[in-house]
Amino acid sequence: MIRSAFLLAAAAAASSVAAFAQTPNLRPDQVAFRAIYKELVETNTTLSEGSCTDAAAKMGGRLKSAGFADADITYFSVPDHPKEGGVTAVMKGSDPKAGSILLLGHIDVVEAHRADWTRDPFTLYEENGYVYGRGTSDMKVIDAIWVDTLMRLKRSGTTPRATIKLALTCGEESDGAFNGADWLVKNRPDLVRADFGLNEGGGGRLDDQGRREVITVGVGEKAYQDFRLTVTNPGGHSSRPRPDNAIYQLADALEKVRGYVFPLKLNATTREQLKARAARDDVAGRALKRFLSDPSDLEAGKIATTDVAVNSILHTNCVATLLSAGHAPNALPQRATANINCRIFPGETVQATKAVLVGVINDPGVKVEALDPDKPLAVSPPLDPKVINPMKALAAKDFPGVPFSPSMSSGASDAVYFGQISMPIYGVPGIFGDPDGNGVHGLNERLRVRSLYEGRDYLFDLVKIYAGVD
Predict the structure, then answer these.
(1) Residues 6 or more apart in contact with residue 78 via CB below 8 angstroms
(2) CA geometry: angle 216, 271, 284, nearest 5 deg
(3) Helices and strands, counts by H and E, the chain
(4) Is the predicted pLDDT of residue 271 greater than 80, yes or no?
(5) Which strand (E) or helix (H) includes residue 107?
(6) In this structure, are residues 351 and 253 in contact, taking their beta carbons and an 8 Å threshold?
(7) How many Å apart are CA 218 and CA 203, to the nearest integer?
(8) Class level of CATH domain 12-221+378-467
(9) Does 223-371 carry CATH code 1.20.1260.10?
(10) Contact 421, 414 (CB under 8 A)
(11) What is the CA 80 to chain-centroid distance, rounded?
(12) I need a surface site. Which of 109, 111, 150, 447 has the fewest CB within 10 A?
């Protein structure tokens, strides 16, 4: 027993050291940045138990500590969602003709249950060249960089030529939450309106060996849409089973959705985006190369989609994400529901996607309902040389020899709401991710330490270029 207790204590001590370990020989400015990042990751901002309002207050407090006045910082929320607030800040430029830029980021994160994770998801761990924790990749790394950038500029005493605005919002990860980006656009556009905005959605891709494969700027994204499948039934006593069981009927519908593959598609952005992947000499890469040269070669396209990242880009995808059924263990189910989450290729509609699902399921007993069908669709920003050229030139300097490419995000972001004020939003390059997705929205989310610090340097320099800071 004493030996076991000793071993448990030793393990706990080792875990504590790992949690607080950090890369040696960090510059003082990197140490300060890591503290911001750590505080954000360790502030639970899930919809179920967390508080974006708390995280926003902490980031506002850091900005004030750097010299921002109360008048430059605005906290916002609504009474029925008190924990889903956000914060904006403004650093006024010296030249009104220089315009303005928005640094945009969501601070809420996907749910993370401790029992499922190897490590506490709300403790920042650093191990084996990675930092671990919910939000380390999506997207508290960029949030921390934006706050850090404004603090560094303010403390330097330099006034930028262009005005820099910041908006950290909640609600991006759940349709059931108060969406701060949408609220700002509709209620306080003065706080976010700018010539353009910088957001998540770009980055960079590493290969399986950690080598940089391509650096990307996000110039479009798929549309996010949930559909609810519902089957109802009179039910009854479980000792008297009947052939029309709601669970089985729903399961049959889900099998049909699982087996359906939406048609493969390309647009100008994805053609360019996939070139780097097609250059890899593996089965998926060779197939993708054939498909890009001949989109009618559907067999090559099918093989190419065995790479999950390629599959997420080449067409609309719909997948079951939630299930609920029955009301008692000794009763036949009276209701069974499932959520089908679709990421719709640009140019396709919610209505057409629903029609496909209805046709595939081919069962009038399964109700297919689009949830929040009037949500705006993302508007792809133009490849404006004033925005793209600085990104590309800086990438050539920081990451020499790495191809630079526009990309379409397979996910969705708060960029969708800015079409309402005709404001282009770009997904920033500079933070490289692993080909497996780094556990985003899944278990043991992580980011390479190298990607963390090199991405921070790249984005700080990029903002200085846009803002006219020498």
Answers:
(1) 84, 178, 183
(2) 90
(3) 14, 19
(4) yes
(5) none
(6) no
(7) 8
(8) alpha beta
(9) no
(10) no
(11) 25
(12) 111
**What would the pLDDT profile of 428-455 be if each residue is shown by its tens digit?**
999 999 999 999 999 999 999 999 999 9
- Structure-block tokens of residue 215: 């650096």
d(C-alpha 311, C-alpha 318), whole Å: 12
CB-based contacts of 115-121 (< 8 A; 24+ apart in sequence): 116/443, 117/443, 117/444, 118/443, 118/444, 119/15, 119/19, 119/444, 120/19, 121/445
User: Going by DSSP bridges, is the β-strand pair 223-232/367-371 parallel, antiparallel, or unpaired?
Assistant: antiparallel
The pairing of strands 125-127 and 196-199 is unpaired
Name the token pair of 273. Answer: 């985006």
- Do 246 and 335 touch, CB atoms closer than 8 A? yes
* Cβ-Cβ contacts under 8 Å for 38 (sequence gap 6 or more): 124
Instruction: List, in order, residues 6 or more apart from 230 with CB less than 8 Å away.
Output: 335, 336, 337, 366, 367, 369
423 in Cβ contact with 198 (< 8 Å): no
CA gap 173, 272 in Å, rounded: 28
Identity of the amino acid at 172: E
What CA–CA distance (Å, rounded) separates 437 from 22?
23
For residue 332, the cross-strand partners are 236
Contact at 8 Å (CB) between 256 and 368? no
Beta strand pairing call for 335-344 and 163-169:
unpaired
Distances (CA, A) of 225 to 327, 339, 344, 375, 420: 28, 10, 7, 9, 18
Hey, what amino acid is at 72?
D
Given a cut of 60, is residue 14 above it in pLDDT? no
| Alpha carbon distance 302, 162 (integer Å) | 47
Which two structure tokens, joined as six digits, stand for 192?
């976010």
- Look up residue 221 and give its amino acid: E
State the DSSP code for 149: H
What pTM was computed for the model?
Answer: 0.86
Distance in angstroms (rounded) separating the CA atoms of residues 258 and 249: 14
Domains of the chain, residue spans: 12-221+378-467, 223-371
Q: What kind and span of H or E run contains 217? A: strand 212-221
Q: Letter for the amino acid at 129?
A: G
* 127 DSSP β-pair partners: 130
- Can you give the pLDDT at residue 19? 54
Mean of per-residue pLDDT scores for the chain: 93
Decide: 378 and 412 in contact? Cβ < 8 Å: yes
In this predicted model, what pLDDT tens digit does every residue of 123-182 receive, in sequence order? 999 999 999 999 999 999 999 999 999 999 999 999 999 999 999 999 999 877 899 999
**Scanning the structure block, which residue is given the tokens 């905005």?**
197
Residue whose pair of structure tokens reads 């303005």 in the numeric block: 100
Closest CA to 311 of 276, 265, 259, 355: 265
Sign of the CA dihedral with 384 first, then 385, 391, and 396 last: positive
Residue type, 437: G
Percentage of residues in the chain having pLDDT higher than 70: 95
